[in-house]
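Key idea: predict the complex, not the pieces.
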Amino acid sequence: MVTKIVSNPPDTSNLGEIQAEVVHITEPLELLSGQRLLDHVLCVETYGQLNKNKSNAVLICHALTGSHHAAGWHAGDKKPGWWDSIIGPGKSIDTEQFFVVSPSNIGTCHGSTGPLSINPKTNSAWGPNFPKLHISDWTASQRMLMDHYKIKCWAAVVGGSLGGMQAMHWSVAYPSRLLSAIVIASAMKLSAQNIAFNEIARRAIKEDPDFLKGYYHENKKKPLKGLALARMIGHVTYLSDLSMAEKFGRELRNGDFLDEKSESVEFKIESYLNYQGDKFAYEFDANSYILLTKMLDYFDLALEYNNEPSTAFELASCKFLVLTFSSDWRFPPERSREITKALITAGRDVTHAEISSSQGHDAFLLPNSRYQKIFSTFLQRIASNVNY
Amino acid sequence: MEKILDSILPWIQSNSRVLDLACGDGSLLEKIQKVRQINGYGLEIDEKSIIECIGKGINVIEQDLDTGLSNFADNCFDSIIICEALQEMRHPNLLLSEMLRVGRECIITFPNFGHWSARCQLFFLGKMPVTRQLSYQWYETPNIHFFTYRDFKMLCEAQNIRILHYYCIAEAYPDVYLKKIFPNLFTQTAVFHLSL
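Result:
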């Protein structure tokens, strides 16, 4: 067994080694479900310096399986944070200008209060009994985190996919507390097809014999097979046909079609998906996955506004940047055009661009010169309006 | 640009909603915004121009005008502007009717192909005109529909479009004087203000 030691991260990231902090929020959080968290903790990473006026802060809203580790390196890791191509000195979200706040939200499984935390009433892990969550619970918790840093107004609230939903919700729920919202590869609500994929993933988890109705933790088990399968389904929908063809094609990992003795022929895409699924199953919590996919399904920005999204956006006052990627079929460009249409109808300031990419939904996480240029130009403009 | 701005400014109300089609680097919208407090948006397809708009803080939407304006509701803008770009569209007449559906009023400016210098080049030299307004060679021009001041007036009549105002821009002499008598011959850039 050869252990690969990566001691020096590549030069592309100058943030270097990052340590998360744990913020204890003592203000009770009333959840939309009617339940209440008396207190909760959030694992947070911050990058850059908060200025004297506390006006240069940017909130990062992570997506379904994201975490607080958005940029920089953790000791011993082979990969930087999930948005390291976007956040850092001189990058699109420039940490020399902005103070970037990146929390893991409640209900996740990376250290913030969630199904793996102890329920103070029962003194055992919440497990499947963790309260049902809505996007508004996340933004309410993030608003408390904002108060913790004594930030009055975010320069920008930024997110892709589920993160974009949070950014939109921020603009409507707390209009005076952000200057701009950057909504990337997102939608105002999921389509039936999207909900269908989430339900297949949930069923894969629930049908795993080790799931035990969510009480696997107490029984020292983990529904690894179900969770891996759920991730494999999700992963396919994050890529595009073209990006899979480019990356894997029909290349073989094992076996040979011409060798009659060869019993198993394995395509590269098969081994890749299996590897990704298994890796995810070890790292993620099944109850969290069910909780968060439900949260995605439930989100509907316009539901409280007579199903008229422009009525919702009339409450907003910030500037919007809406970005979408041509080959994204999970959150297709049409969904982003709907957001922009509603914003224009509401008379809000909005810039909209469709980035040409073959990378599918995952494109929002990957480097792309046009994407990064638009992102940084917009934020530079915001920075020029920030009172230093 | 200054002449065009001067001619269209009186037609744009303060606090109105303005959509600029093929807005380029956003400088026209920026200038209108300085004089009138408008809620303005630009549509553009060129990547470099979009970045320039963002840098200026202009609301810019990436959109191909040849796919129409179906994403905009009826009458959702007070004014829709298209400056020097109608001749680049695949279906100018369809776009014009879309503009009149989405906006209460439309402002159109275009290079007049009937200008005497263009006519002379075609008549005496037998070659496609290259003028200050039409500055491209035939093989590289983005202009795919050439039309004259008179052609445009006839289109408006045929489609029952009301011409609220029009303005003929001519900068050279003797065009400045003669444009009033023979507008189709001496107008370099025509500016029309239309509604249904």
